[in-house]
Amino acid sequence: MATISEALTAAVAHHQAGRLQAAEQIYRQILAVEPDQADAWHLLGVVAAHTGRPAMAVEHIRRAIALSGDQAVFHANLGNVLLDQGKLDEALACYGRALALNPNLAEVHHQRGLALAAQGKLDAAIACYRRAVEIRPGDAESHYTLGAALQKQEQVDAATACYRRALQLKPDYPEAHNNLGAVLKEQGKLDEAAACCRRAVELKPDFAEAYNNLGVVLNDQEKLDEAVACCRRAVELKPDDSEALNNLGNGLKDQGRLDEAVACYRRALELRPNYAGAHANLGLAWLLTGDWQRGWPEYEWRWRTKQLQPRPFAQPLWDGSSPAGKTILLYAEQGLGDTLQFVRYAPLVKSLGAMVIVECQRPLRPLLASCAGVDRLVAHGDELPAFDTHAPLLSLPGILRTALDSVPAAVPYLAAMPALVEAWGEKLRDLRGFKVGINWQGRPGAGSWRARNVPLRQFAALAAMEGVRLVSLQKGPGRGELAEVREHFPVFDPGEDVDQAAGAFMDSAAIMMHLDLVITSDTAVPHLAGALGVPVWVALPFAPDWRWMLDRPDSPWYPTMRLFRQRERGDWQGVFAEIEAALRRQLELSCS
Questions:
Q1: Of 76, 281, 361, 424, which has the highest C-beta tally within 10 A?
Q2: 35 pLDDT above the threshold of 90
Q3: Which domain holds residue 461?
Q4: Under a CB-based contact definition with an 8 Å cutoff, are residues 70 and 97 in contact?
Q5: In terms of domains, do 437 and 351 share one?
């Protein structure tokens, strides 16, 4: 046989080429001749690790360490085997010893970071990854792993920079393309995010996670058929992926395929019983179908998702038991429209004998001062008075077991300020005819949020009807469309300063008192009109928000509301043809 040195060289060549069986045979031949050859024991251990024999790997590498004394690479590779076994403390001890011997081993800093991350010590892990990058700035994997850790800490911009650097170093890195797509999606850069995810699946056709992420991005782009196809592919590749099943359910729900969506959520929960997102989505699906008995309890899982953070109160959550003689805090948790809708429960809780404190968004404080049943109104961020128990506003229907026939729907439960009503009466005095307030766009967003927005031009046929005067109730980005339609049809614009001085919706509420009808997209405006008892028609997208349920033309929440629904996704023309016909009938009745 060749010399030990020559044999080792030949074995290492086999090893590096992936011919592990041949390498192992030579290592064993060397050890048969020289049992105390530490390098052979070490490399034999590495082969054992690569061929799925971790216990043997640990035994062989420990023997190498015992024979050779301290060699950093021996301790590092022993740490790698222990890390793969989930023995994190032992792995960290090995990495610590390796770095004590040679602090400039980038790979060991990287692996130590992986072990710390597995222990949930992300800050320490990130420090290790950063050190690895400093030592070896041309290593794409270190940049990628650092980006993944920063992404977990929601340091989106920093993560994006890491993924971009990884791809500069290694353009055909599917995992980096996929993760970059995910962070770009969080930044609202949907086209670029989709391109990244597409590249990931091109490079790695069986990449289930990339198909899942691409499906989520496409869903936000309202490309539902392709989104559902991508999520299905993710589930085919990885049938036990609860996240992909949940996202497939979301896409199917947006397509109006509720039974299939529910089946996906349930399957996700079979695989992962405490998956908060799937529970909450299942609750929303049931609420949408009118199955409120099952929907409200599932919807409570929203507090375990990333979207909402539970309030850290020492006092207990109200469980629905008699609050008589107690002080209960009810607090806003989501958007302004949600608060307007669910503050209706304050009088009901008051009627049970409680003293009611309502904490709301600061801009809503002036308007909610008109709500009966509120003993004290507090703006979010202000010091709270003492209370005995608490409940989020959107939990009240579940706590009070609200059913379709027991919604507290007496209107009005909010009121416009008399002085503002009078002032706006003067400003609108010369506006003759059947006055219709209109709103066409809500807060910016993707997916279902964007699907709610109605192009202002859809109101043209209403403006052309004899005797009809359109009055803008629009605030925010959508106001830019007023200039675009000015030459085509008239819309009275009360001005940009509406609701600025008196508080959110205060001017809008006063204006509504002088309108005959409000026609609006699904924003906070229909909730305001409904709470004021003003007649309001709502144009809904094909996949409506859960509170509007399915098919029905009315709403149990607001007696003065009428719902107009898309029959096909994106078909606002059909919706407004129905609205136009209904408005003509309304005008005929008002003239008869």
A1: 281
A2: no
A3: 418-591
A4: yes
A5: no
